[in-house]
Amino acid sequence: MSDVTTSEATTPAVAMSEAAGVSRKNPPESPPPSAGRILIIDDEAEIRESLETLLQLEGYTVVAAGSGGEGLAQIGQRAFDVVLLDLALPDKNGMDVLSEIRLLHPQQAVIMITAYGTVENAVRAMQSGATNFIQKPWDNEKLLADVRAAVARQKAEEENIQLKRALKQRYNFENIVGKSEPMLKIFDLVAQVAPSRSTVLLQGESGTGKELIAKAIHLNSTRRDRPFVPVNSGSTPPDLLESTLFGHVKGAFTSAVASKKGLFEVADRGTLFLDEIGTMSMDTQSKILRVLQDRKFMHLGGVQEIQVDVRIIAATNVDLRQMVREGRFREDLFYRLNVISIDLPALRQRREDIPLLVQHFLQKYSEENERPRRRITTEALRPLVTYSWPGNVRELENAIERAVVLSSDSDIGIDLLPDHILGQGGSIPALDASAGATLFSIMEDCERRIIIDMLEKCGWNQTEAAERFHVPLSTLNQKIKRLAIEIKKKNRE
């Protein structure tokens, strides 16, 4: 099939249809079942008509939009397998529209179509997340082949996501919001380990949702009808922690005016969640180790051994291996706890979940404050996606709660976000959003800074950096190449 050409006697739409062997006057009487849903965003009516005809005769359901704003509105109303996006639009630059699509639907397949097809534009489009890049005039067979491939990939990815979502619903993960690959892997792992009685160690920064994961493990275990007992080791004074955990007999210490059960007894046949376990004293650690080994303990001041059946889920936001090396955490206890380890990603490592989390918290705090459902504007969503979130999900939740409480109408704009999130004190320096900067370029700059910062912390050891990011080494290498990050080999020594 040769490239499409036009002449003075033939319109582009007719020429493109004829090049595909299409007769616009005689459409098929019974179109085949839809092979997929396609959105065309192009300001030229003849181009839209040509593409619509070509794709409909291949069995696709086609929706056309004449501007970037109209196309984004369509994407907000329904799902599409592929978007065919023109680079030059009357109201928005096509690259900006692509960035908007990526913000709302990170996995959306987008094929850029333009009459200004330079190598530079192709590279920019692919770096921005475009699935492919086609220049006008196009070869119909190649275009259809690209569309078929993009639809197939999109459907495969959607099927995988649907399976993971079904798994999430089946295992009652209703309070854990996420569709990113790191979180879907967490859901899989929780579903696998929950039915066992093995000890689990949850590792991750503060605010990443370790207690929610612990509850999910408990609720999907055979112990679900027994107590889930959380203990924050970091907020309980050391001298009271042992009494809290193991209980005491009357007269064991000055204020022990009566005997009291410990939380190990309360959690019998259930789950005990030991949060911030790295803050425990060495003496308390040794007693926890004995319970894990023998499933027995004694009340403070007591002489009778008490048998319990408790599953331990521990959590930490510090590096326990490093504490073991420094002699601040018992090595034997660490290996007893680290039977099954689950590393929770920081929010900056799963940015595609941020819009979902924002919607979740908007609904939650609108209902709690008895207000109509609040909406986030696109302008306000952008800094939420690009901010580094040192406080993780907990910090995001606080920001949304604040915005809902302070809002006076249904739309939450950028004026309701804290100053440090807008770049006035966040851990990532303010980015230049002056004329010419796009959402993609801002996010790309943010991503580059985060990766360079981690590489510097790891002495430019890419394997260690990939482990800390919880991503395969190949994924990190691809990002390094795409972002043109220069590896400083001399610093590895």
What's this, in brief?
This protein is of the alpha/beta class and 493 residues long. Helix content is 44%, strand content 13%.
Folded structure, characterized:
The protein is α/β, with parallel strands linked by helices and 493 residues long. The protein has helices at 12-19, 45-56, 68-77, 94-104, 119-127, 140-170, 181-193, 210-219, 238-246, 263-266, 282-294, 320-325, 331-337, 354-368, 378-386, 392-406, 439-457, 462-469, 473-482, and strands spanning 37-41, 61-65, 82-86, 109-114, 132-135, 200-203, 228-232, 247-248, 260-261, 271-275, 296-298, 305-307, 311-316, 340-343, 375-376, 411-412. It is elongated. It starts with 11 loop residues before the first helix and ends in an 11-residue tail after the last helix.
SSE layout and pairings?
Layout: H1 12-19, E1 37-41, H2 45-56, E2 61-65, H3 68-77, E3 82-86, H4 94-104, E4 109-114, H5 119-127, E5 132-135, H6 140-170, H7 181-193, E6 200-203, H8 210-219, E7 228-232, H9 238-246, E8 247-248, E9 260-261, H10 263-266, E10 271-275, H11 282-294, E11 296-298, E12 305-307, E13 311-316, H12 320-325, H13 331-337, E14 340-343, H14 354-368, E15 375-376, H15 378-386, H16 392-406, E16 411-412, H17 439-457, H18 462-469, H19 473-482
Parallel strand pairs: 1-2, 1-3, 3-4, 4-5, 6-13, 6-14, 7-10, 10-13, 15-16
Antiparallel strand pairs: 8-9, 11-12
